[in-house]
């Protein structure tokens, strides 16, 4: 990591795998350390008008998950998982860092699913419990059915949520 990145609170850290007892893993980042702090912006300003926070899947195929927002109102776009390769023995799934999402739960107003591939919906059973129960899930008709089925498998389906 270069010296200027070390002082930047939004710079990504060296990849750290976190394993849980259920065989899932997620990739941590320095975003863990800045979850409760306001974003830096121009001097005298409130920060950038549009913020894009990759929660998972940045620079890799799979685990698509990002927060997009203005001020302190965010939409979570996708909640995917990634399947490990042969070098990641002992892992069944690799998930976005849901502990980060739990810290931001009062700022997340909706979940939008772009399409029904596993790298876009596979982590929903771990992401949905981290969010406020009133947060709706939006997707196209067929994709919404896939999401509902996925959540039913984990007893997380709530028709009032949209999925």
TrEMBL record:
Gene3D superfamilies: Ribonuclease Z/Hydroxyacylglutathione hydrolase-like. InterPro entries: Metallo-B-lactamas, RibonucZ/Hydroxyglut_hydro. It holds the Pfam family Lactamase_B. Residues 64-137 form the Metallo-beta-lactamase domain. It comes from the Eukaryota. Coiled coil: none annotated. This is Metallo-beta-lactamase domain-containing protein. It comes from Monoraphidium neglectum. The lineage of its organism: Eukaryota, Viridiplantae, Chlorophyta, core chlorophytes, Chlorophyceae.
